Amino acid sequence: MSEITLDGLEKRYGDELAVEDVSVTIDDGELLCLLGPSGSGKSTTLRMLAGLETPTDGRIHIDETDVTDRPAYERTTATVFQDWALFPHKTVLENVAFGLKMQGVEKDERRDRAREMLERVRMTAHADDDPMNLSGGQKQRVALARALAVNPDVLLLDEPLSNLDKRLSEDMQIELREIHAELEETFVHVTHDQDEAFTLADRIGIMADGNLVQVGKPDEVYENPKNRFIEGFLGDTNFVDGEVERTTGDSVHVETELGRTIVLPTGRPEALSAGDAVTLSVRPEVLSIESAESDASSEQRGQPVRTDGSTTNAVVGTVENVLYRGSTVRYSVAVDGTSVFVERTVSDSGAFDAGDEIRIDWDGADVLAFRDDGSRVDL
Description:
Layout: E1 4-13, E2 16-26, E3 31-35, H1 42-50, E4 57-62, E5 65-66, E6 77-80, H2 92-102, H3 107-120, H4 136-149, E7 154-158, H5 166-183, E8 186-191, H6 194-200, E9 203-208, E10 211-216, H7 218-223, H8 228-233, E11 238-247, E12 251-256, E13 261-265, E14 277-282, E15 288-291, E16 305-307, E17 310-324, E18 328-335, E19 338-345, E20 357-363, E21 368-370
Parallel strand pairs: 3-8, 3-9, 6-7, 7-8
Antiparallel strand pairs: 1-2, 1-4, 4-5, 9-10, 11-12, 11-14, 12-13, 14-21, 15-20, 16-17, 17-18, 17-20, 18-19
Helix pairs in contact: 2-3, 2-4, 3-4
Membrane topology: Peripheral membrane protein
Subunit structure: The complex is composed of two ATP-binding proteins (WtpC), two transmembrane proteins (WtpB) and a solute-binding protein (WtpA).
GO cellular component, one term: ATP-binding cassette (ABC) transporter complex
């Protein structure tokens, strides 16, 4: 068993509070990604878990054993670092076997174990090579093999893919996922890359300003963000400022900077009142676009309409620029002086050009609302 419990974890460097009151339970065999921008406290949290930093406050338990004050070598963890930290004076095989040597494992046994790990990461052919002559991806595999060779209960990964190019990083993400599924051990993976976290994680813990803001499955944190920071950090979105115009029994009407009233369906009309300032989030994937010329009734442009109980909103704007991104195309659209972006696959793009007038439609049920303090409005 390798369940991890962090309880009220805090780390100060003088007057600087790097990690504040982090509490979470990581299940046995789970792969948890700590995701956040630089300086959010995710690597410091991992280093405290590894025994490389001492918490200022709080406790760390692994398998119900309090390891808070134990040094790294007395914990059943192994760490893969961002810079790989390979020994230049040892061969690849000797690097992988090093931890086993420190554990007092006999020479033949540690060489066999090291070769087994190299085979697992597809590096057997490089066993006798100088690690400094390897590519970045190969070095990463050796570092991973070295960490796995000591058979840790918990594997800690501190931005291990950040020095790799995009294609190689994506390949390594798949390999890491497969290795985790094979070993069924507890992994804690730190990254600032959202795609990496969504590919790897059973659950994602999002950190900001030293705090663990939200923990959940990838689809949960994306579809149900706790606050505006998370909504803006995970993927791209259009934030539109507005003010509540009125509420009814089943809808909220928000006058927005788009020059249009946006209608949101609600089961809790009491959640907002007329005059409340709100910021709406409209993700590009929920928007549909068509030529404005196909809209037969120009008088209705921008007016919300009811269709089968849903609230459809529409605005008309002018394409400012078109950005091709290989398989996708992004349109930046000017709507009443505010820029809105829409993304489509190339095959569904509609081939609009700068200067074209287009209509943008979306369902109000796909819009999230946030208060001035960043908290989400539960509609």
